[in-house]
Amino acid sequence: MQLIISICCTKTNLHAKNQIEEMIQLQLKKWLLSSLAMVLMLSLFAGTAFADNHGDDNAMVRVFHASPDAPAVDIYVNGDLAVEGAAFEDITGYLELPAGDHDVAIHAAGEDEAVYEQTLTVEGGTHYTVAAVDFLDGGDFRLEAFVDDNTVAEGMTKVRVGHLSPDAPAVDVGLVGGDSLFEGAEFFAVTDYLELDPDTYDLEIRAAGTEDQVLDLSGTTLEADTVYSVYAVGALEDLGVVVVADDAYAMPGDMPQTGMGGASQSSTMLPLYLSLLAGAGAMFVIVRRRYAFEQ
Question: Membrane-crossing residues (predicted)?
Answer without folding.
Answer: 31-51, 270-287
